[in-house]
Protein 1
Amino acid sequence: MTRSVAFVGAGPTTIYTLHALLQQEVPPFELTLFEKQASVGRGTPYRPGWNDPAMLSNIASVEIPPLEETLVDWLHRQSDDRLSELRIDREQIDDRAFYPRVLLGEYFHDQLQAMLERATCAGVKVNVRTRCEVIDATSGSDGMTLVVRPERGGVFETLFDHVVLATGHQWPAQPEVRPGYFLSPWPASEIEKIRACRIGIRGSSLTAIDAAVALAVSHGAFVDDGQGGLIYAPGVGTDDFHMTMLSRKGLLPEADFYFPIPYEPLAICNDEAIEALIAGQMDDLLDRAFGLFKQELAAADGVYAERVGLDRLDMEEFCDGYFAERMATDPFVWADRNLAQAQADYEARRTVAWRYAILRMHEVIQSLIPHLDDADFQRFSRFFKPVFVDDYATVPHESIKRMLALHKAGKLDVLRVGENYRIDNHRAESGAVLHLDGEAVHFPVFIEATGQRALAAKDFPFASLRDQGIVRDVAAGQERGPARGIVVDDEFHPISPDLPADQLFCLSLPFIMGRHPFIQGITSSCEIGQVVGAELAAALARESAVAAEPASEAQGMALS
């Protein structure tokens, strides 16, 4: 009997999972992809319309795990006309380059098509169901039943042996939920309709930069200044156009820095050391892990360790010190200096050792998260996590140039709001009002741009799995604090005694971010895809072997 596998969602996480599965030796199976968009492979972060062509990804080509081919090889294979459509000069193709989001969408789309053709040749029956939204799922002893609503025709149910939920980020299709108040900066096609006025943007990371870029290109243009920088030229009639980014710390992200790829191994704060701490089941697990972090950092860059007094700092003090110098400097002055340094380091192929050490440790430290109690999880989220996020969530040099150009043109500022501020979006006037330090500032348009947050089980899109108790929140001893997401194991199965083995995998990012707080990028899609692809391959092979056993026994009886 042919086994069946369904993927709900057809973005990068599905692509890398399917790639890992097809790399294994598995018996033929039936594969179905459900995607509510008109085409598969592009995913929300990379599809046209949702993103403006000017929006850049924040991952260099060389960091993108290859599929059927590398991104650079794929680019070299494209015609000049297609490269022109993608706004790329052939001379610009480089494995350290950052490319537009929509270009990555085209790459993933083509790679998925090639994978599906290869699967078909290998005996896999492939069904691609676009414009089909899965609206519910129910677990049973005979499989997982999906309730599907196609764009045309009636709702129907269909049964699968294995289901992978990879529904990706969750953003509203219409971001303007009240006049002038936008819950997200996507789709960009909606943001670009905003009139030239005073605009507040909550956040200053890449998501906020995406919003600023979409608005900027709709009200003007970035022009090369002939010296490696950019000038922003406002459009006619846009005198009232001005953006203010609201940031707790009043910072812009730093420019991408040069480092060796693949990562060099860690000597002290590595997987083995963290696993040993976890096995010890100690109450001070987080502080012991921070001790290993400090040792690794000091070994990597003794000058930096001495300069910040690392040996005397606890976790909270280190976090404060990490940001202190930047917070004491105008964010655009710092961004200008940081960009110049990053460009010089790239030119010299020079690595800032302490930055590289922190970058390599973030995924190692992440394995602690399921083992932290609520108090330490909150400490981690407030003090340790921001350091890692700041270090790895750097942005393309071009993005920093754009922010500097907008500021010099008088179109962009960054406002530090700290922790004690309030946004009121329920006023009679459009947009929202910022309440800060006893003052009220009205923004006729206000955009929430702090990125995807971790979601709880109540937000899970498949109600029957909640009702069955299969999808449930990580138990918390406190009512308030960061969301810890839903309960999944190391192989991304929801943990439930009523769920048959390997029937369901949950890779829906907002619901596993509590356990995996750094799991938002393409490299994370590859890593979790490898885990789930291997699990699926093993399950299919095991089930095929079991199905063959009765036939073998019957044949043996006939021969006797």
Protein 2
Amino acid sequence: MDVITPRRIRITLKTIRAITFISLLLLIFFSTVVLSIVLYAKWQGPPSLTVPQSTIIYASDGSKIGELHNGQKRYWVNLDDISEHVLQATIAIEDRSFYDHHGFDYKRIAGAALADLRAMAKVQGASTITQQYARNLFLQHEKTWQRKAMEAFYTIRLEQNYSKDEILEGYLNTIFYGHGVYGIEAAANYYFGKNASQLTLAEASMLAGIPKGPNLYSPYINQEKAKERQTIILKMMANEGYITEKQLDGALREKLVYTTKEEKVQKGMAPYFQDAVMSSLAMDLQMDEDILKTKGLKIYTTLDPDMQKIAEEIVASSIEKKSDIQAGFVAMDPKTGYVKALIGGRDYEKSPFNRATQAKRQPGSTIKPLLYYTAINNGFTPSTEMMSEPTTFSYDDGKATYKPSNYNDYYANDFITMLQAIALSDNIYAVKTHMFLGMDKLVKSGEQFGLDTKIKKVPSAALGTSPIRLVDIVNAYGMLGNGGKKIEPAFVTKVEAANGDVIYKAEKNKEQILNEQAAFVTTHMMTGMFDPKLNGYTSVTGQSIANTLTRDYAGKSGSTSTDSWMIGFSPQIVAGVWTGYDKGKSIDLVQERGYSKTIWARFMEKALEDESVKAFRPPDGLVGVYINPASGKLATKECPEKRLTYYVEGTEPTEYCTEHSTEMPKEKESKQKEDSLFDKLFKWWD
């Protein structure tokens, strides 16, 4: 048996005194901290209770192109003008101790924490009405400790400087009720076509349930869930003594009559562009779009109103009105990546789906410039020859084969140069190049060009079978056009908060990503699609629109059974057009296959008609020589066609063409009988 000695008693007493002393120090410390925070909150004064304001979107010239939630869905009403049923239903479901606590319901917090621990997940909330109102006053809604701390401080400031009725009034005027509706007055009008003061018990309890999850409890979205939540609220109101059992039964039986649900279509100029603005801004600022739309922001965009109008008119007039074919269009400044015009579909009211920024489709041959840039960067030149003939390619260690074909099964059955291959869109040449380089090269180039989706490591990738977004491929062409500097599609130049503070500004410094010389060589080869000098076993792919163009352009068309593309640029602007059917229906009519080229050509000419004609200027490190396009050799005076072509210095041809010399036999040289170096290597490798 232990003997309690005086010494042990003294040790125990010392321990108790030490613990008591430390506890008192901690209590004093925390009391001081809490008191300091409360006093500081009081000293800071009342926080601004600004009514959510319309966010305004401006074009690049300063003109207003859109105003989001411009008052029709948001009103501020006094507490006296709100039905008593709304006040009671809101307090019953959101914060039963609202009039008793000082901003934080500690008992509820402890209960929620215990419930979360038991479930090992976030299953129960404990935010008071004051905390929720504080959250509504913030522009930043990211889930960080800093934001949580500021929200708690705002809660204290609200409680220190405003009455409970003032806090409740502010909360009910700023809470989100779904469908772009903010505040109880707007909600009463939107759902029931009446003022907040006229809401019945059944209507008030229905609306009080929506803020918990507007996409779940809106009666327009899920009537069953909305009714379940209304029942919960009514029963809680009865438990709290707000209503009698008779009122409860009557409200549950009341058949609610809603106004006709009409989602307001966004009005104003370029609705697809405005959607893209909000989507990109939400990502850049890490904010919810609904928050951005209600903070009185001034959003300055890259849109050129004149170009947008030109694009819209041309798309509308170029496509048969009876046709169900869809269209996407993007025009950008290749130097900055600023999107100057954008169309996501033929009718925003019928379909707000943005085919320029959201749809991912197979780009077809429009991927080839990225492939040929890669080839130029790996030793190929515009004069590199390969045989254009039906070819079966084996891959995956011989386990698989791929047999592409040219359009309409036309082949040169002879050697063609890369310069001709891109102008005629020869598929055999493209796949040979892809396989010779190694399929991983194009995959890496896709990443280098900033494509949002990864190119698959398969032979058919050379022919554009990996889906991409229109805005991304247009941006990639812009990088070729600007000499290889990195750009990204940009919709916004600057954003100002309601108080005038600049909270976002677009970056301007552009990093050199591509090889400048290889980018220009590729660009200059891309002008060949409009040049009849490069006609061979078939015509250049831009022949149908070449006569309508009055200046130099670099471009590439592409097609699949379901998609038609045309992308190209001048030194001032890069634009791309996609046409096709949403549900993968094949494009069978010849007229419909020509829409993309027609729209692109008409837009470029109209958009640049008042601009000076600018040429593509070669950078240092290049050599320009005249060649015979058919052979890729230096042209002589006997050659029927001569074309200025650029090469990376040191790779230009040194041999003169002898095909048309009177001193040589008319039959072709031995190159007809022998494979080119690349074809020899390719056949050996295969």
Protein 3
Amino acid sequence: MQEQGTPRRQLLALGLAAPLAAGTVLAAGDGATAAARPAASSAPAARLPFRDPRLTFEQRVGDLLGRLTRDEKISLLHQYQPAIPRLGLRAFRTGGEALHGLAWLGEATVFPQAVGLAATWDPALLRRVGAAVGDEARGFQHERPEGWSLNLWAPVVNLLRDPRWGRNEEGYSEDPCLSGVLSTAYGHGLQGDDPRYLKTAPTIKHYLANNTEKDRVTSDSVLRPRVRREYDEAAFRPALEADAVTGVMSSYNLVNGRPATVNPDLNDVVRKWARKPLLHVTDADGPNNLTGAQGYYATRPEADAAALKAGIDSFTADSAEPAKTVRSLTTALEKGLITESELDTAVRHILHIRCRLGEFDPDGGPYAEITKAAVDSPAHRALARTAAEEAVVLLKNHAEALPLDPGRVRKLAVVGPLADTLYTDWYSGTMPYEVTPREGIVRRLGGAGKVTGGEGVDRVALRGAGGAYLSAGGGEDGAVLTESGDGAGSAEQFDVFDWGRGIVTLRSAANGKYVGWDGKVFRNDQKQPGGWFVQQQFVLEEQDDGTRLVRYAGYETLADSFGPKRYLAAGADGTVTLAAKEDAGRYELRTVRDGVAEAVEAARAADAAVVVVGSMPAINGREDHDRPDMALAAGQAALVKAVHRANPRTVVVLETSYPDTVNWEQEHIPALVWTTHAGQETGNALARVLFGDVNPAGRLTQTWYRSEDDLPGLLDYDIIASRRTYLYFRGDPLYPFGHGLSYTSFRYGTPEPSASALREDETVTVSVRVTNTGARDGDEVVQLYTRRRASRDEQPLRQLRAFTRVRVAAGRSETVRLRLRAADLTHWDVTRGREVLEDGVHEVLVGASSQDIRGRATLRVHGETIPARDLTATTRAADFDDCRDVRLVDESKASGEAVGSERDGAWIAFRDAELGSGATEFTARVAREARGAGRVQVRLGAPDGPLAGTAEVRATGGRYAYDTVTARLRGARGRHDVYLVLSGELRIGSFSLR
């Protein structure tokens, strides 16, 4: 990259970027011989054609590729790409974290978590936030700190189909339309507005169906074709089709038995969505999992070769050490597992992105002049506040409990474990400043004297059997925890924060730092719980005699290595370390301050109370840890109830990364407000909403269920069969998808489509008049859903198709126009393996949430009628209509899907098959690894219907070794649902009835 200070136009005037002679270097770049050796050139690197911005990116990449040696090309396939001094190339790294601001680079603007940004339902805002994050990424590049990258790993579009997912905070929505629109907006912001160059290169993640953390490297996301096409892929496709992102990251999990790291769809499907070259990366150490926990390949060269062939361009493995990847790919090339052409293809993808970033331009491209002044700029601070304000969702507001009137609220009790702290998540940046809920409210009311209350947590001292207290230390670094205090002074006092399921954190009163394990001893030196191994977690286990054992409950995988030694105990010198339960210290818990009593006292003396409760992102749910339940922590729920008893004018603020089952609160608390962990401006945003300076208009992006009983197992990805998400859920949610209230009211007119009928490739505009019937200006999120009245296949109860957030002044009206394309109304036809626009009538539903529908219209869609199934042609077994006790599995390691039986009597169904005058033979491609025989029965009408024929399946030599089996059929004529009933462990790839 050119040194700063030399303008682009001066370099061009000096002739330092000569044009490429037509056709010369491109041909050399495509040849294996030329690509294996450095091209001879006496010209300075600055004069080489790949530096010439007047050429096309394809020409420049072709020139550079032709100048690289084989070893240099292989070196570029690791995440940490080394410098190539002879060509003037600097080191490059894929992967900077930018979900809601830049992470791990030092102080940078921290916006609301991604799920909070999504709650704004404001694509224009997300584009502005993305642009700000992109500017800050460019601002950091001049210093090039550790972790610097212009290839940003964001946004995350994995669908929030289950609110127990530990990484719920990272995604946008349970709906693919909403996720697609918002990810496109954020990606465009990160990329910038230049038609050719990139400000940053965003990578969308994690492909595919990555929505569980338990055993995430070995768990298998089973996706039947309709779920895969209509749901999981549909979230990724919009941003890629809009060229709003520059590649995807493969996920850790398996998809239908095959690791996502070697998913052939990376090439075969994803690249076809985009118009420009993409750079695909693996998740961290994904390549190593192929030979490790997944055991999918025997050797690293085989595994890396398979990943490269599938479409991976950059290998994120072994941290900053590329040697293993380089050695593995070199071996793969020498053994013929990959070709030079396949190597060149991956390198070309990498170089194309680097070229579009302006790296090879003499002046660094159009974004090179963005400086560090962009980081934490006044404009970004203001944007952070706007984003935090727009993200707030008003869940309930009985009898206009909100907004609070500052003229009448002379004293306000603000209490709760999140009232005085802003928590960050694993991918948060470092906030340059923090405005807590209490601080924001104090500023809004004009002084601390009007605000009372504390955090509502107990302050305790723990007295050992010998009379000495657990003692920490003052100062920034605290001290090693000892059993040494002879009294309950500040060094012996700890604030106990309850995060649910018995897990608490202990914050030292001596210095306000949390106690945690450093691998040898305990020390109070952490600003807040965090890190990959969250080592600040404890359980205070009450014993029969009233004493407590203090169990270390840090990151479970770390604690497992300790075996039975999980309890705190003091050694001979008083130092506290870990011991087995029988050797644990027994402590008398003395309450120095009763947090609930203190909160109740403040609430009784106040005009109103605000209770701020919620989650701790490093503990309640996070990467590698799903939530076992959705309840508010017991201690926090008790605090809410106690404050409400003391003062019925109680407002509860939920500050969480996901939905909670707050049924009691919904029934009893007058006003409920939800926000995610919203970054540095959280307090100001909440205060402005609570006091009516901002009229809330945030909307929920996922269903809030009443109970875990409303949900199937976390690993069940079939949202159709399991009735999951608002698309298929038939129960009564606590809050529906799209829900959110306002301080004003809106009346909707009748929705009016611009046409009564719609054909393929056509678009209709639905207009609806929205009137603000209240006394306050406000935003309304107008949501357009459709419902198909009849279909061959089960359809969603309703499905979001378009939306807009519109500002409507009090007493005024606005006409909202929403576009609906025929393409939006297609679904995946498993009978023919393609999208289909089915003929029929659709209801057009316009409203304020998925269940608050204000107006309806009908739309006639002229499409096609799905014909009866033709099973005489070869039919993929995976294209079934229904199933029981089967799994979709990998047909081979390279590609394809088959159906595997899990127990005798398993079946797959093919609805409405036309067998004509009679099928006489059943033929199937099957594999059976086990000895002995299995069988496939062909039955008509039901799994136990008339038997038409039986094919015996003997051992074929392995799960990927397929043989053809046949069976004579009897009575297989006319139109029937056909069932294949499987017995014995076997796989079936395809079949036909002729």
